[in-house]
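Changelog entry

Holo records now carry the ligand SMILES as an explicit input line rather than a separate metadata file. Below, a converted record for flavin mononucleotide, shown in the new format.
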Amino acid sequence: MCKKPDLRVTLGDMELQNPVLTASGTFGYAREFEGLVDLNRLGAIIVKGLALRPTKGNPPPRIVETPCGMLNAIGLENVGIDAFTDQKLPFLKTLAPPIFANIYGTCIEDYAELAARLEALEGIAGVEINISCPNVKAGGIAFGADADAAYQVVKAVRAKTRKHLIVKLSPNVTDIARIARSAEAAGADSLSLINTITGMAIDLETRRPKIANITGGLSGPAIKPVALRMVWQVVQATQIPVIGIGGIMTADDALEFLVAGASAVQIGTANFINPQVTTDIIDGIELFLAQRKIAKLADLIGTLETKPSGPLE
Ligand SMILES: Cc1cc2nc3c(=O)[nH]c(=O)nc-3n(C[C@H](O)[C@H](O)[C@H](O)COP(=O)(O)O)c2cc1C
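Structure line, unchanged by the conversion:
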């Protein structure tokens, strides 16, 4: 009997049993998926974005389906760090995969305080910071849309945590490589991208926006080519591990990101269609490697060939 392919990947000094992670906001606090998918098979689990205080989010409607994707304006509804610690973490601690807390704030101090609170918590392997949020003190421009603001927020969080620090980048920028380099210079251990792309949908009968917030974040297969392009650019521009996110529905989608140089991937919108999609993707990656007699997934990462394949006729 042939040996199974080795799916292990590394994020800096952290080893994951496979490269398939859950994307924040699409997997609750993991317990919601208990009984639907084998949580212990995941590479790592990233939970819903946490704030210092509980947040109700935006009024409905706040989700609408669009061709090949969805728009959401949930508004970062979450239970807050206290309830997370008391009510959600005990279950998460029983699981084998590393747990990452995703955090956000509206000022640098919020991010720093959240990071300090998480640093003290057993059972949290790392922190993913969502910098797609408006910086209230800087007129509401998202931290992730400005290289300087990105640097400042990452530096403040870095000062408060020794845990693995993932910085999650916003795609709503003209030069993603510049923001990525800022996050790296400020001390990020790895980068994840992309968050949702700002979009809009209109109901022609009522001539009203289809979501109450007017604009929302586009996710799903519609954004995969943009995500893949940005991941590839960031891989070229930085030295730290990159985690690919955006429209991954199948093992082939995930493999494209890995070949482009991502060390791991996160699965978001696909969880709403098939709650077992993460383990299906793990199985699909294993099958792909076995069929091609590739012993180690790590050998496939970053093997994209961009030189022309030969003279044109
Ligand atoms: C309903 C919903 C809620 C989300 N909530 C968060 C969040 O709390 N924090 C965050 O960093 N990203 C959040 N995201 C973004 C996803 O983690 C992911 O970056 C994005 O959806 C692109 O991946 P996908 O196309 O696989 O969904 C959310 C996405 C969706 C669809």
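Spot-checked after migration. Residues 277-291 form the longest helix (15 residues). The chain has one domain: 9-300.
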